[in-house]
Design a protein that fits this description.
By secondary structure, this protein is an alpha/beta fold. The chain has 9 helices and 8 strands. The protein has an 8-stranded parallel beta sheet. Bound molecules: pyridoxal-5'-phosphate (PLP).
Length: about 220
């Protein structure tokens, strides 16, 4: 398997022109594929599974910025905290506290995004607006000096109806703008991670500044 260099260059140019960060989602893909993209100058890579991420990080150059985009279990936090750049899918105070605790042990500050459930499909992952407000009010009274909440992340419905997908992204951008305006250190609340291979153009039109793209660059995945 090889990466689609033309697709990568095209997307990268398109995103650079509008100041959107590209996270290349390399889950299930080989270390060789990742190196191929690395050698084109790419540094931001996203993975969904802790063991896979830990194993790849150990084999690849340490100036890669690893994004954890899957659902993180509290007992796995310590495995990725030493090297992770940004954790996209945080959706509980318990998890934030665990990240804070493990980060404090090694004297790091970990950037986190809060995951919001915007899709029609039922899933256990992501918060609604009320849960988000509740979590943020609790965070403001806890002392969590070793985490930094940098913004929000969401996944639209797995459907082809782009109007519906646009509505979901629009809603998430609205939540993001409200929190950004409340945020005391609003300069720190600056990342809106939304958009994948099938919907990143709509996401950018709706205000995304970070997209997570896998299959367009690395080809279709056969497993998970
Ligand atoms: C797999 C995955 C992506 C990338 O999906 P593609 O459709 O291959 O671009 C983006 N975000 C998350 C959270 C994922 O799990």
């Amino acid at each position: 398997m090889a990466i689609d260099k033309d697709a990568y260059q095209k997307i990268k140019t398109e995103l650079d022109a509008v100041g959107v960060t590209l996270v290349a989602v390399s889950k299930t893909k080989s270390v060789e594929d990742i190196l191929e993209l690395y050698n084109l100058g790419h540094r931001d890579f996203g993975e969904n599974y802790v063991q896979e991420l830990v194993s790849k990080a150990a084999q690849l150059p340490d100036d890669i910025r690893w994004h954890y985009i899957g659902h993180l279990q509290s007992n796995k936090v310590k495995l990725i905290v030493p090297f992770v750049q940004l954790i996209h899918g945080v959706d509980s105070l318990k998890l934030l506290k665990e990240i804070n605790k493990e980060a404090a042990k090694i004297n790091k500050i970990i950037n986190c995004l809060l995951q919001i459930h915007i899709a029609q499909e039922e899933t256990k992952f992501g918060m609604n607006e009320e849960e988000l407000n509740d979590l943020l009010s609790k965070v403001s009274v806890e002392r969590l000096p070793n985490i930094r909440i940098r913004g929000l992340m969401g996944m639209a419905s797995f459907i082809t109806d782009l109007d519906q997908i646009r509505k979901e992204f629009h809603y998430l951008k609205g939540l993001f703008d409200v929190q950004k305006s409340f945020s005391i250190q609003s300069n720190d609340f600056d990342i809106l991670s939304m958009g994948m291979s099938s919907d990143y153009k709509v996401a950018i039109e709706e205000g995304s500044n970070m997209v997570r793209i896998g299959s367009l660059i690395f080809g279709e995945r056969t497993k998970y």
